[in-house]
Design a protein that fits this description.
6-stranded parallel beta sheet; Rossmann fold; globular; alpha/beta
């Protein structure tokens, strides 16, 4: 199910991007990365996909799926470029990208699908579950700083990579949770509506 999914009326090839993560909490680093990929690769749609549990970071998410969904939805509900999928949250358990890719391929059988990752993940791609099949289903957009050489990706048959010169704002969700625990401001790091949700529900205390 794609909650908040907006219909597209574009004819012909549709380019759809997906940016996954724990989003605990969502911050401007996530959203700037999404915007960079959307603009530079001229995507038609971009889905933010919060994970139930990331396989390589099993303890990353600390707040509930409902809270992370609410923060993310409130952060982008005004922006018609971005949509939020609750597929991984509804599925539960460990969120493997291959499962999500198969789900989205079934929903969008004729469109071009792009999975957006940080450049630091390139050397680890061989560790991803069923990476050979995943490389067949989706292309990858990886974010790097302008002027910096791309990190070396392992040899994976059929892997299709597209560089995105992103701004890569250095914001850590772990640091933001610590700031919340210490009573420090989240302003200028986190969208205001997400901050309101954090305060209202006393998250990360």
């Amino acid at each position: 199910m794609l909650r908040g999914c907006r219909a597209t009326h574009r004819r012909g090839l549709v380019k759809i991007g997906f940016l996954g993560g724990s989003f605990d909490p969502v911050h401007f680093g996530h959203l700037i990365a999404a915007q960079d990929a959307y603009e530079q690769h001229r995507l038609d749609r971009l889905f933010l996909v919060p994970a139930a549990q990331a396989p390589l970071k099993p303890q990353e998410a600390q707040s509930s799926a409902a809270d992370r969904w609410a923060m993310l939805q409130s952060a982008v509900e005004w922006d018609r470029r971005f949509e939020v999928s609750d597929y991984e949250l509804q599925k539960g358990g460990t969120s493997y990208t291959i499962d999500s890719a198969r789900h989205f391929r079934a929903l969008f059988p004729t469109d071009h699908l792009y999975w957006i990752i940080g450049g630091d993940q390139l050397p680890k791609l061989h560790l991803w579950k069923e990476i050979g099949e995943l490389a067949r289903i989706v292309e990858f957009i990886f974010l790097e700083r302008p002027g910096h050489p791309a990190k070396v990706a392992p040899s994976i048959p059929g892997l299709r990579l597209h560089r995105c010169d992103g701004h890569l704002v250095e914001i850590s969700s772990t640091e933001l949770r610590q700031r919340a625990r210490l009573g420090l401001s989240l302003d200028y790091f986190v969208p205001h509506k997400a901050i309101v949700h954090i305060r209202k529900n006393d998250l990360y205390r």
